[in-house]
User: Fold these one by one.
Assistant:
Number 1:
Amino acid sequence: MLTEPRGTMHGWIWRANLLPFVETIADLVRCRLDESGLTAGVEDSDANNDLWFTLVLDGQPRVEMHFAGTDDQVLVDLELDGTDESFEIRAALLLGICSSYRLAPEAS
């Protein structure tokens, strides 16, 4: 994961981790998530053709996420506005976990 100026992160996650990744960020910033809009937007994105989907979570802090999908991965750019260091650390850790491990839903 490449980290740029404070509040900007780039990386990738496994496609199967997309929903847990965005749900966790949305919870951290106390913002509602439109799951169907997220899924459709990422499905229409294409990393090979530089077609990105942007999702803005207007919470505390405001987070702008850009996604471009491949077959089994999703490229991720995060722009965090007005964040504190602890939030940045959590977001970076989450990005690292979602690119290193394939998360599985809890069994019912």
Note: The mean pLDDT is 89.
Number 2:
Amino acid sequence: MAREVDEHDTPAEVDAAFRTQRRVSAAYFTLFLVAVTGVPALTLALDWWSAGRLIGGMSPGFVMAAFGLYLFFFLIGLAAATLATAVEARMLGGPAEEPGPPGDGPP
């Protein structure tokens, strides 16, 4: 007995989705790298980044390192995951509409 294979995605579609996902991940990595290297760069470039005082006597650089980067990591992770899921859902998958049983459509 032959087994029926139900494939919806062609190799070209899978390759295009892979290339798109790779570009998206490279863009998010670049954004991540700029943000992570930007905190120490600001410390070297701006005096007020280290000498200024905010709530509780904390410097802006400390606040960014202690709290801001964690918020940034969460947001960039959420954005990357959301975009990756949307790209995959849009580029891969089966036909737009699966046929239903006969007589199940509008009258």
Note: The mean pLDDT is 84.
Number 3:
Amino acid sequence: MSETRTTVLKLGTIIAALLGFVIIGLVGVYRPSHQQSLINVLLGEVGTLAIAHSAYRISSGKQASTVGALTAVVCGLVLAGSPFVFANFDPFLTIQLVCSLVLTLAGVAALAERYMGGEEGRRTGAERIAGRSGN
């Protein structure tokens, strides 16, 4: 994996994880319907944990987890569409859409890197450690 691509992916997943906290806290500021609050808290939490796990793995020199990245994509898509069903008012809608789409894009980028990335990410941890020690 090229160094620049790795850095961008690390930053993207970390930013997405931080925006996941915004999604969770958004319901405390704008007080949407009960259903929207539940969706934000539950799916926001699951999506944030999933993308944070991917960020951790990428930062550790490993590939993102397929399940974690896919979970972030699904949660992001549901979160992006939910305000249209339950709480269609500004600025809640705008903030929710931006944060959810960043979460979704970070998950898609992690999945793309996993399957189209370089050989370095496909090596096992033992192979990476052996390569660094010169063995």
Note: The radius of gyration is 17 Å.
Number 4:
Amino acid sequence: MTGTGRPPAADAPGTRRWSTLTASAVLLSALGAVFAFASGIGLPLALAGAICGGLALRRDPGARPWPLVAMLVGIVGALIGAVLVVIATAVWAPLVPGMLFG
């Protein structure tokens, strides 16, 4: 209790300073989602961002909703990246033997 007789005000969700894990999740997920459109190059970044976001949800509950946003963006980026990797593989795989053994 404070001197006024009221309990101290709790931080509103999302207003507390981010932990390193939350900041890493947001950064990795954003980079992964952006680079996922480059034939899936951002897939590992998006996966790492989604994992960090999931861990940050448990370890840093005061930073919500940002770990959840990072996790969802990472999952969407990973799905887009995976689809583009499959498409690129299907397009380029038949051409590889001709390029190697020409």
Note: The radius of gyration is 20 Å.
